[in-house]
Amino acid sequence: MIYIHIWILIFIFLPKSILCAESCGDKRTVFGAVRGDVVLPLNQTAIKDIAWVTANVHFASTKPGGDIDILNNRYEGRLYGTADGSLNFTKLTSEDQGEYTAHILTGPKIKFCEQQYDLRVFRTLLPEDMEILPSVTRNGTCRVSLFCMVNGSDVNITWISSDSSAINVVNGSLHVTDTDNIFKCTAHNSVSTISRTVNPQRYCQEDVSDVSNLQTMSTAENSLLCRVFIAKSIAVVIVGLFLGINLLLTRKQN
């Protein structure tokens, strides 16, 4: 219906004060995952037509029943209409994040309203995105600090202990007061959650093992150096004796 599209274009570009347009409701925040799907939902009745706009570009129109006109090649094959006229985004990319507006025409009396959306697109967190970085110090006792590093933006990180004791986190580092406890780091964004469990005692054991290995290596190196020194000394003595004997024989012959 061409006249409907014309009215929608007029609504988009003319000031709302002239058209007496109103808001369909509060702005909606919608979360989606990269390569995932998301729906920009509508909550209106008697809908005739919807124009979808982002960055002042009218990129699609939908109607109840699933009909859709895609007006921008960037969205070709990724947008679908739903039974109530809502817009179904598929194969989301980070570039899809932004502000969207649905300009809605309802009837039987011609009436316009607009619904705004804030679409936020996140990357799904994977187990390999998390790494626990330990810091071990020794001063009579083993002290461990753990830093939970996560590859991702807008990520919330929390620590919990196996005995539900108080957690001491300073500047993102967990200061372990009891190395016999088990701790779990959990990271989540709006579309995914990952976690990793860690036993701080292992780092104390590794630290002792490393020191022991270093001491063993140092002893072996010292022993090797000693043997080399003795061998070189013996060689010098032998060469000296050989040269001395040759010198005596030469003098006797003269």
Automatic annotation (TrEMBL):
<keyword id="KW-0732">Signal</keyword>
<keyword id="KW-0325">Glycoprotein</keyword>
<dbReference type="InterPro" id="IPR007110">
    <property type="entry name" value="Ig-like_dom"/>
</dbReference>
<feature type="transmembrane region" description="Helical">
    <location>
        <begin position="229"/>
        <end position="249"/>
    </location>
</feature>
<keyword id="KW-1133">Transmembrane helix</keyword>
<feature type="domain" description="Ig-like">
    <location>
        <begin position="127"/>
        <end position="199"/>
    </location>
</feature>
<dbReference type="GO" id="GO:0016020">
    <property type="term" value="C:membrane"/>
</dbReference>
<feature type="signal peptide">
    <location>
        <begin position="1"/>
        <end position="20"/>
    </location>
</feature>
<keyword id="KW-0472">Membrane</keyword>
<protein>
    <submittedName>
        <fullName>SLAM family member 5-like</fullName>
    </submittedName>
</protein>
<dbReference type="InterPro" id="IPR015631">
    <property type="entry name" value="CD2/SLAM_rcpt"/>
</dbReference>
<keyword id="KW-0812">Transmembrane</keyword>
<dbReference type="InterPro" id="IPR036179">
    <property type="entry name" value="Ig-like_dom_sf"/>
</dbReference>
<dbReference type="InterPro" id="IPR013783">
    <property type="entry name" value="Ig-like_fold"/>
</dbReference>
